[in-house]
Amino acid sequence: MSIQLTQDHVFKTYLREGRPFVKGRGSKLYDDQGNVYTDFLAGIAVCNMGHCHPDLTAAICAQAGALLHVSNLFYTRPQAELAKVLTEKSFADRVFFANSGAEANEAAIKLARRFFQAKGETDRFKIVTMQQSFHGRTMATLSATGQDKIKKGFYPLLDGFAHVPFNDIDALKAVVDDTVCAVMME
Asked: Which domains does the chain have, with CATH numbers?
């Protein structure tokens, strides 16, 4: 039933595999026929925290019981505390919280271009990415993606992106010039 409902009502953005999963515990997933699998993937661009760890489940339930969602127009202690930890453990002095990898990548594209615009270097806007890369489904991140099959049907894309093969330093050197503001790589 889950397979047919998905095929009928969910966009076909990914080739789905196997039987529907109905529960998870630790690193194990269970399908609708009782088969057990070890979860080596968890998802695309996610942190694998395992499934149903009692401490994590309790923390999520406690937070959902206190405050589930508040707009970024307001202050919340959990967001402020997480931002503090992230800045203390990274190079950054501030954090941008995003809803998806595409949104984070879009912000990175904008920040790279903004950096040079603010310095008066308006000709530095090109971003170099790799062929066969995937950066997201927004127009900017789709433009950054180095796979024609994913871009098909969405033209015209945004200007200002160049794609080179992975592990080809000569190809990279050939496109990096005074118009490049960033190299973006997965």
From this structure: 2-67 (3.90.1150.10), 101-183 (no CATH)
pTM as predicted:
0.78
| pLDDT 10s digits, 10-62 | 988 878 888 899 999 998 999 999 999 998 886 776 677 888 999 999 999 99
Chain-centroid distance, C-alpha 78: 22
**How far is C-alpha 70 from the geometric centre of its chain's CA atoms?**
22
